[in-house]
Amino acid sequence: MFIKKYNKGFTIIEMVIAITILGIVGGLSALIIDRTVDGYDATARRAKLHSGVRLAVDRIAREARHALPNSICTYDGSNCNSSADRFYFLKTIDAGEYQTLTGNYSSGTARAPLPISPSTATSFDVLSTDSLTASTEDWVVVYNTNNADIYTSSTTKRRQINSISTKDVDGTNNVAVVNFSSSISFPTHSPSRRVQIIQNNATLFYLSGTELYRATSTFSAPNTPVGEQLLLENVTALNFSYVPGTQQRASVLTIDITITVKGETIRIIHKAHIQNAA
Fold first, then answer.
1. Where are the domains of the chain?
2. Quick check: 112 and 45 in contact, CB under 8 A?
3. What is the pTM (predicted TM-score) of this model?
4. Which among 103, 177, 233, 258 would be 20 to 30 A from 139, CA to CA?
């Protein structure tokens, strides 16, 4: 008797079909994984971009909220600034209510009112505090109503401080005293009797190419950076605009910024309300 034997295995056609199917499944799997990874990378990139922009905008707004009233300069088409992608201001580091009365305190110590032209004096009292954050390089400002003349050397609305001392009011409490190296005066009173202390420089935010910088500058050249710090890269559009306020209504600084990285674009428009009481 003869036994017929069959060889078990795959034919070449079956192998080709199997390899083809495996290739299709593998390709589809790779495509799905690739798209998933790209989607994750895009999400992470957008989150990082948004975080970077938000940090920069928040810092600008936070610093601008300490601006001396009526010192913010953005592009206005004439004399304040030459470009919409930059702005500058004077930073307030302290404030208080000044003395307007003459005579003596209950302790018998003489009051020193703010000198208003034509009167002059070498000091005046600040009532609302017994200490001021100030140094000999800082300045006192009273009732600045114009964002142009406060930067000029001829202005009488800001005066440089020589020293800060204290004065006994009633044997227990003191008031701060602002001293000057010579007799000075201010042109007019503030409606709220408010005095502001500012730093001996201006603060400037500006775009250079696609990089956003924060810089310090001078009173005489506030639009020219002296020391600078890089805040943000890949900025493709930037616009600062400012609406002055009144004694009853805050000013508004609008920051409109766009950044683009690897085809991802993020735009943020932020409005910062600035205290305007002078």
1. 90-199
2. no
3. 0.80
4. 103
